[in-house]
Amino acid sequence: MFYRETGQFKTSYRADSQIFPIWQDRIGMLVVLFFAVVGIPLIASEYWINAILIPFLIFSLATMGLNFLTGYAGQLSLGSAAFMAVGAFATYNFQLRVEGIPFFASIFLGGVSAAAVGILFGLPSLRIKGFYLAVATLAAQFFVVWCLTKFPWFSNNSSSGVISAQTITMFGFTFDTPIRKYLLVLFFVILLALLGKNLVRSATGRAWMAVRDMDVAAEVIGIPLMRTKLLAFAISSFYCGIAGALYAYCYLGTVEPDGFSLDLSFKILFMVIIGGVGSILGNFLGAGFILLLPIFLDIVLPAVAKVLHLPLSSQIVSHIQLMVFGALIIFFLIVEPHGLAKLWQITKEKLRLWPFPH
Amino acid sequence: MQFFIEIVMSGILSGLMYSLVALGFVLIFKASGVLNFAQGSMVYTAALAVVGWIDMGMPMWLAILAAFLFMVLVGICTERFVLGKLVNQPPISLFMATIGLSFFLDGLAPILFGSEIRPINLGIVDEPIQSIMTATGIGISKLDLFSSFIIVILVLVLTLLFQYTRVGRALRAVADDHQAALSLGIPLENIWAIVWAIAGFVALVAGLLWGARNGVQYALSLTALKALPVLILGGFTSVPGAVIGGVIIGVSEKLAEIYIPPVLQGWFGGNFGGIEGWFPYIFALLFLLVRPEGLFGEKHIDRV
Question: Which of A67, A212, B141, B303 is a Cys-bridge partner for A71, taking CB atoms 3.0 to 4.6 Å apart?
Answer without folding.
Answer: A67
